[in-house]
Each structure stands twice: as C-alpha cells, then as structure tokens.
Design a protein that fits this description.
single chain; alpha/beta; five-stranded parallel sheet; 8 helices; 5 strands; globular
Amino acid sequence: MIVWLNGTHGAGKTTTSALVQKLIPDSRVFDAEKVGETLMDITPVLPWTGNFQHWPPWRPLVVETARHVLDYTGGTLVMPMTVLVEEYWREISSGLARHAIPVRHFVLHADQDTLRARIAGDTVLGPDSPFRLQHLEPYAEAARTWLHEAAEVVDTTHLTPDQAAQQIADAVKS
C-alpha cells in the first residue's frame, strides 16, 4: 500500500510522513522528490521546464520505483509529495493501480495565513523561500478544482504534526 501525503509546500508533509511511518507497522518513507533530483543530475541537463514534475519520465519513474521497492520490501510506503497538476496525479495513481497497488491519498491542508506563517517561521529552509510561496496559489486552485475531491483532506490548521499523523494512521488502519 501507499499512503500519499499531498499538499502545498510548507503544509508539513515531510514532518508528518516521518511520524506516520512510526505509527504504521512495516512502513517506509519514500520521497518521490528524490526521483526528480536524480533526473536533475543528468548531464547534459534535461531541457528545463520550471519543475521536474513536468518532465515526462518523472511520473512513470515514481510509479516504477515505488512498485519495485514494494515488491522488494512489502509493507507500506509513505510518500510525501506535492502534486498539483491533476493530469500528473491521474497518471501516477493509474500507474500504481495497474500494478494493483492500493493508494490512500491524503492532502494536508491549512489556510493561507497559517501556511505563510509556517513558511516564514521555517528554521530549516528559512523564511525566504520563494519556491514555496509561489506554490500557494496553484495549491489553492488545485484544492478548489480537483485535489480535495481526489483525496482525504486533513486540515492541519489547528493540529500538531503528531495529531495529523495519528489521524492519518488511524484512517489507514480502519
């Protein structure tokens, strides 16, 4: 099984995924961003599109990597990864379905003011994170148009990361 944690940058996916992994037996965290980083390391560089998710190889490589890891280890993969393009989500989820891999898709949601405050207070990446701020409106648009209908929404506005992780783990186990 895959527990996919979606949501905009700064929503708490990385923190929450590590906590969810501890609550679900026989689970591992697989950050699909690492697949994008691998593609970014190709030389000469691939034609830049502004985001590695726009490169056609990224989505099937995420599916195949997850499939091979699950074939090797079994259990559950907890995957923190923002996907805001509906076509890309459908490509990934249908690819996993073709391999009979069940997916529980969660969106970590918080209101815009909370997200901005979290980004500003981030001590790891720092408050000057234009990349994350640039994705707030695309996230809001995806949430309005398709994303919240395609996932189980966990409103983290007033939840600690531990509470959000527990809510997700409880939903997966039920």
